[in-house]
Amino acid sequence: MEREESLGKRLKRFGALVSILFIITVAVIVTQRLSNDALALLIGLAVGIIAMLPLVGLLAFIWRRQELHYQEARQYRPAERNLPVVVIAPSALPGYGPQRAEPGAHNRQAGSWEMARAERKFTIVGGEQ
Questions:
Q1: pLDDT at residue 92 in the model
Q2: Which residue has better confidence, 77 or 22?
Q3: Measured by CB atoms within 10 angstroms of the end CB, which terminus of the chain is less buried, N or C?
Q4: Both ends of the chain: CA-CA distance in Å?
Q5: What stretches of the chain show up as alpha helix (H) in DSSP?
Q6: Higher-confidence position of 40 and 112
Q7: How far apart are CA 31 and CA 25, in angstroms?
Q8: What is the DSSP letter of 124?
Q9: Residue 45 contacts residue 30 (beta carbons within 8 Å)
Q10: Which residues have C-beta within 8 Å of that of residue 113, sequence separation ≥ 6?
Q11: What stretch of H or E contains 115?
Q12: Does residue 101 contact residue 114 with C-beta atoms inside 8 Å?
């Protein structure tokens, strides 16, 4: 006993047949009405797109493969542990920061350090000297 095809399959076949007939009809009408130069341009465009398809397929394949590899590597990666953070302070500029008290100077507290006064020098650009 032969099983009848589903309505969906028959509609898909009918749609594909109508689409192919439409494309062929449009191609015949367009090629008859276009000038030779316009037809050459259209054919060149179509051939260029067709020539580009293998490269696009290859790039999509490589991209998908990398995505799968990345997902696998991420899945099997051991849990990351927090590494200690080491902060190294830069050395102070000369004249800034704590300086030794001058001999004979009176300190407020024993062993305290006074801040050295840094002389600032300004240069005015564009003015008279």
A1: 62
A2: 22
A3: N
A4: 112
A5: 7-33, 36-75
A6: 40
A7: 10
A8: -
A9: no
A10: 98, 99, 100, 101
A11: strand 114-115
A12: yes
- Among all chains, which residue has been given the structure tokens 């991420």? 74
**Is the pLDDT confidence value at 46 over 70?**
yes
| Mean predicted lDDT score pLDDT of the chain | 79
Query: Distance (Å, rounded) from C-alpha 111 to C-alpha 101?
Result: 9
Give the position of tokens 């398809």: 53
Please provide residue 98's backbone torsions phi and psi, each rounded to the nearest 5 degrees.
-65, 135
114 three-state secondary structure: strand
Kind and range of the H or E run holding 99: strand 98-99
| Nearest Cα to Cα of residue 30 among 17, 43, 18, 39 | 39
pLDDT digits 0-9 by tens, 61-79: 999 999 988 888 777 766 6
Q: Which residues face 98 on adjacent strands?
A: 115
Name which of 30, 54, 52, 29 is nearest 41 in CA terms: 30
Whether the predicted pLDDT of 18 surpasses 90: yes
Q: Position 10: which residue type?
A: R
* CA atoms of 123 and 11, how far apart (whole Å): 87
